[in-house]
Structure formats: structure tokens, C-alpha cells
Specification:
The complex is a heterodimer of chains A (222) and B (409). With 222 residues, chain A is an alpha+beta fold. Chain A is 39% helix and 19% strand. Chain A is built from nine helices and nine strands. The termini of chain A are far apart. With 409 residues, chain B is mainly alpha-helical. The chains are: A alpha+beta (222), B mainly alpha (409). Chains A and B meet through helix 1 of A and helix 14 and helix 15 of B.
């Protein structure tokens, strides 16, 4: 008998197809097994941290939206969820100058004061008294009723070039979510992904003792 | 010690002593070499170097058990066929870092390339020991090119790839020598060099398998397959990953005092990402090998002794390390990943031995068993590799980055 005799082409082909299909079918569970239970970074991005069109985000997680001649400024969804319910908002006086990338106002959450950088240059023309009276409510509508101050811009076109909007803004929040995900424990990942249970104060949930340092890193755009 | 060696060296550097003798006087340096490991290495070299000299003097027959029937022995099987596969770490990691953008693997790139470079250099050395008459080595390229031979392609590929590996590793040597301009020039060529290197590796890793396509009557049907080039290529990826996992763990331990404390490298994390790659590659490799079995249709041979040996390789050294890598990745156990790395390396060695030695000439009465001279020669070649690796790592920026060139290509 010839040592290298081949099977009949039909049987051999049938076996090859069966083998190829079994490989593909087995590869799926194997791949999932190898990847483990890690929190998928993208699951945190879209849909978890929202940013509507027309809103421009600063790297320090303040937002700006041109409205008539002024610019509304607030704290983005990511920052709100990161620090949790605000206890106090220390807004500047009307007429005070603000500069892009420099401290504009201070929020207090979990007993820790955290500085927020201004997204634009100009001077303050209005502050949101409703939020000042009930800071925790800002979380409900961070890009609408949760605005914090209005600024008369000095150099809006130039300022906007340094901000993220549209898809770039969503990618920016995705990247921030990715940075957070690296520090997530699986338990918290489950809470975040199940969609129905918002976690306010992710930073605190991550690191009870040093959460304010983590939050400052994000708010300083680092 | 590490600070001395980090300074730019011979040219314009502080002194030759610092660089060559690690900052010690010549006498102190010699004294520092008196270790048990060096004693073993010296004993191997003392036995091996004269054996190699004797082989060149008296010919193959004086040292080896090779014959007209068994023309390829341990030197081809281990020094060349295994050597090329085990040196695959260089192109595997270079491809992952520069082509697939896995920047996290950066810290293990240089050790992997150095291992590859020395591996190929020793393959060439082993080949010359086997072939004899080293001055005739260029004949195959220039004087009598056998353009229809697989060996012609393998010869060119290994020759060119050795130069490419030299260029890939050269930045470390140039940083050590303080040759800034040349180093910068090479840095700008990095991507091109890497692409050429990966292409050449793909070619000759598979060609080594293709080499055995011409021996259907000699290689056992369970190992002979028209897919041999594919088997060799895919398993070289696994070998590369396995070698990098094992080698990085060993050198991390051996060269602990050279690691830069400021740039702490999380080797466990790197090992775990390699484990994922290893699990997937081995899993695919297992099915590709099965495809070879299906194509040959020789399921009846599985019930023989050779079949048991075949299953031992397939299950114990392909499927098992794949699962161990997978468990390691899932459980985040770098230790388990290293065990899988060792199994993978052993598995590739076993496969290459099976194809080129054990299941080769399986049906001849005159079975080949390597002589003591062949074994000691192979051991000598490995020892030379380890000694050169250590000499270089102790002096050049390999496991650590040169402070002036941090993050450079």
C-alpha cells in the first residue's frame, strides 16, 4: 500500500470543511475565554458619557456653547459623573475676566474643592443662580439647565479651535473613559455596563482615599 | 554598576575600562568572572572548541555519526532548523511593535532582537561547522547559484536577514559607542529595516518547511504534508512568542541590577499580553496541523507507535501550551504564562526534531543517533550564544534604555 495515498477527494474535502467549520466555531468561545472578564473600554465610551452636537469640550472637561453674543459654560457629563453630586459651586463675580486654560470656578464635591479651567477667554456676564442654590441638580441636565456661567468672549474663533466638538468630542470622552477603565475593578464595571444604574462619583468608587487627586488630574486636562 | 555602563562609551566616553571591564580594574574584572556558571561554560568550551577544530581538521566522519543514509544529523536539526525557529522572537516582537503598533512590548524589543541576531549568527556558525570549508559559503550566491533549490532561497534569506538583524540591533551598539550621527541615521531607517526583516523571516521560516517537501519518501507520513511551509511559518510565530516569554523572564532575573529603577517595566503585564497571542497562535496551529492529517488521510497510522508519538506532540506540546497560555491570560497569572512559554519552546524543538531527525528516515534500518562530539558541539554553540548575550547586555543599552535616547526608534 502506498504510504502517501490520499482519501477520495469527496471524503477529504468533506472532512476539511468540517474541520475548518469546527475551528471557527471553537475559536469564538476560545477567543472570549482568552480575553477574560476585563471591562471592555468601548462599553464605557458612547452612550455612557454624553455630549450633544454644538457643545465644545475643553481638555479640563468644561464645555462651551456659543449662544447669541455670549458663550454658555458648564461642566461636562464625564466630570459630573466623575466627581459625583456637587455640594457647592463657587462662581466668579459678574465682570470678572476668565482665560482659556486657566482657573474659572471651583466646585466642591465630597468635601473636596476642585478647580475647573475656563474653556474660553472673555469676561463673565451671568452666573446660574439656580445651580448656585441647588448645585446637585446640575447633574440632571449638564448641557442645558446645568450651565454654570455665561461669558462674553474675547477671541471666540481662536478659542474654539482648541476645543473638541462633534465626533472629536465623543472620541475625547471615549479616551477619558479608557483612562478610567484601566483603573476599574470588575465589580464597578458591571455597575457601569448594566446601563440602568448610574454611578455618581466614579472617582470616589475607584479610590476612596485619593479620589480627589484622580479627579484633579482629569479636570486639569492631564 | 549599571550607571557606569549607561554612560556613552569608547569614543568620547570616560574610559575604556568602565565600558569593557564594567568599571572594575582588569584584575577585579577577571576575579568577578569566577562563578559556578562560568565554570560550567568554560568546561563546555574546553571540550567543544577542540572538537570543532578537530571536525574541520579531520572531516565530518571523525566527529559525527553521519552516513550516506543519514546525511543530516543533530547539527542540521538543532543548530539550523531549531535555531532558526527559536530565533523568531526578533521578527515576532518587531512586527508586533512597529507594524501592529503594540507599543507596550517596546521594553522587550531589544532583548528579542539581540536574541534573534545571535540566534541567526549561531545558525550560520552551526551551518558552517556542518558544511565545512567556510570559504566556499559565497559560492551558492555568486559562483554556482542553484536557483531551483529551496536552499538557495534559504541561504539568501538567512544571509540578508542576518545583516538586517545586525542593523536592527546596531542602534544599541551605536548608543553604547556614543556615535550619535550614525545612530540618528539608523533610527530614521527603522521602519524600512523592520519591514524587510519581517518579509525575509516570513520567507525563510516557511522555506525551511518547504525544504522537507522534497523528502516524501523519507519523512513519516504523519509529519510529511504539502502544508509543511505553513506549519513551519505558523509554529515559528509560536516559537517567537514562547522564546520571548522565557527569555525576558530569565534576563529580567539575571540582569536585575541593570534595570533602570526610574523606568519600571511591568514585565508581568507584557508577558500576559504575549500569552494571549501565544494561546491564539497555538490554537490555530493545532487546527492547521489537523488539516494536514486530514489531507493525508492516514488516520490508521494514529494507532501505531508513531501515532502515539504524533499525538504526544500535538496534544502535549501544541494544544496543552495553548490552553495553559489561555488560562494564564484569563487568570492573569504571569507564572502560568511562563510555564506555557517553556512548553511552547519545547514543543517547537520537538516538532523540528521530529521533522528533521526522529521521524526522518524512520523506515531505514540504519537509524541515526548523534555522537558525543555532535552533542558537545551543539552545546558549545549555545554556550557561546549565552556568553555573547551576557557580554552585550552587561554593556549596551538592551534591557534598559540609554538616557539620551529614551523613546527613540
Amino acid at each position: 500500500m502506498n504510504e502517501y495515498e490520499l482519501l477520495s477527494p469527496y471524503t477529504a474535502k468533506a472532512l476539511e470543511y468540517v474541520l475548518a467549520l469546527s475551528y471557527l466555531l471553537l475559536f469564538i468561545p476560545f477567543w472570549r475565554f482568552v480575553q477574560g472578564e476585563a471591562v471592555p473600554v468601548h462599553a464605557l465610551g458612547f452612550g455612557w458619557f454624553q455630549v450633544p452636537n454644538g457643545v465644545h469640550l475643553h481638555v479640563g472637561h468644561a464645555w462651551a456653547r456659543p449662544e447669541g453674543g455670549a458663550v454658555e459654560v458648564g461642566l461636562d457629563d464625564f466630570a459630573h459623573k466623575l466627581v459625583g453630586p456637587l455640594e457647592t459651586v463657587r462662581l466668579p463675580e459678574i465682570g470678572a475676566p476668565v482665560r482659556q486654560g486657566q482657573k474659572a470656578f471651583t466646585i466642591v464635591a465630597g468635601g473636596q474643592p476642585l478647580d475647573v479651567l475656563s474653556p474660553v477667554d472673555g469676561h463673565v456676564v451671568a452666573v446660574n443662580e439656580a445651580v448656585r442654590a441647588h448645585p446637585a441638580d446640575a447633574l440632571r441636565d449638564p448641557y442645558g439647565a446645568g450651565w454654570l456661567m455665561k461669558v462674553e468672549p474675547r477671541w471666540l474663533t481662536g478659542n474654539l479651535k482648541n476645543l473638541f466638538s462633534g465626533d472629536a468630542a465623543r472620541r475625547f470622552l471615549d479616551a477619558a473613559a479608557g483612562k478610567l477603565a484601566q483603573r476599574l475593578t470588575p465589580q464597578l464595571g458591571v455597575v457601569l455596563q448594566d446601563g440602568g444604574t448610574p454611578v455618581h462619583g466614579i472617582a470616589r468608587a475607584l479610590d476612596e482615599d485619593h479620589w480627589d487627586e484622580l479627579a484633579r488630574q482629569f479636570l486639569e486636562g492631564k | 554598576m549599571s550607571e557606569h555602563a549607561l554612560k556613552p562609551a569608547l569614543f568620547g566616553g570616560p574610559s575604556m575600562r568602565e565600558n569593557l571591564f564594567l568599571g572594575m580594574t582588569f584584575r577585579a574584572y577577571l576575579k568577578s568572572l569566577l562563578t559556578p556558571a562560568n565554570a560550567i561554560a568554560a568546561a563546555i568550551l574546553l571540550a567543544g572548541l577542540p572538537t570543532i577544530a578537530y571536525r574541520f581538521w579531520k572531516g565530518l566522519g571523525a566527529v559525527t555519526n553521519l552516513s550516506q543514509t543519514n546525511a543530516w544529523g543533530l547539527w542540521v536539526a538543532f543548530d539550523v532548523v531549531c535555531g532558526v525557529a527559536l530565533a523568531a522572537g526578533g521578527y515576532t516582537v518587531a512586527c508586533a511593535v512597529y507594524i501592529f503598533g503594540q507599543k507596550a512590548l517596546r521594553p522587550i524589543l531589544r532583548p528579542a532582537i539581540l536574541t534573534g541576531f545571535l540566534g541567526y549568527a549561531l545558525v550560520l556558525f552551526g551551518l558552517v561547522v556542518d558544511l565545512g570549508q567556510p570559504w566556499r559559503l559565497p559560492y551558492q550566491f555568486f559562483l554556482t547559484p542553484g536557483t531551483t533549490s529551496v536552499m538557495y532561497e534559504v541561504g539568501w534569506c538567512v544571509f540578508l536577514y542576518l545583516m538586517v538583524l545586525g542593523l536592527e540591533f546596531a542602534p544599541a551598539a551605536l548608543e553604547w559607542l556614543g556615535l550619535v550621527k550614525l545612530r540618528r541615521l539608523l533610527g530614521s531607517l527603522t521602519i524600512g529595516i523592520i519591514v524587510i526583516g519581517v518579509t525575509l523571516s516570513t520567507l525563510h521560516q516557511s522555506s525551511l518547511g518547504a525544504f522537507f517537501l522534497m523528502t516524501p519518501g523519507k519523512l513519516h507520513p504523519l509529519w510529511y504534508s504539502p502544508f509543511l511551509p505553513v506549519f513551519f511559518f505558523v509554529s515559528s510565530l509560536a516559537a517567537g512568542i514562547g522564546m520571548v516569554v522565557v527569555e525576558s523572564a530569565l534576563s529580567h532575573r539575571a540582569f536585575r541590577d541593570r534595570l533602570d529603577p526610574a523606568a519600571s517595566v511591568d514585565l508581568d503585564r507584557i508577558t500576559l499580553s504575549l500569552a494571549k497571542g501565544g494561546a491564539i497562535v497555538l490554537f490555530a496551529y493545532f487546527f492547521i496541523r489537523l488539516q494536514g492529517l486530514v489531507a493525508s488521510g492516514r488516520f490508521d497510522l494514529l494507532a501505531t507507535g508513531w501515532g502515539a508519538w504524533y499525538l504526544f506532540e500535538m496534544l502535549g506540546f501544541i494544544l496543552l501550551p495553548s490552553f495553559v497560555f489561555a488560562f494564564a491570560a484569563r487568570r492573569k497569572s504571569a507564572r502560568l504564562a511562563r510555564i506555557a512559554g517553556v512548553l511552547t519552546v519545547l514543543g517547537v524543538i520537538l516538532n523540528r526534531f521530529n521533522v528533521s531527525l526522529i521521524a526522518f528516515n524512520w523506515n531505514v534500518p540504519d537509524r541515526y543517533v548523534p555522537s558525543a562530539g555532535e552533542v558537545i558541539t551543539s552545546l558549545t554553540i549555545v554556550t557561546i550564544g549565552v556568553l555573547i548575550f551576557r557580554w552585550i547586555v552587561n554593556r549596551m543599552p538592551v534591557v534598559n534604555e540609554h538616557p539620551d535616547w529614551r523613546g527613540a526608534h
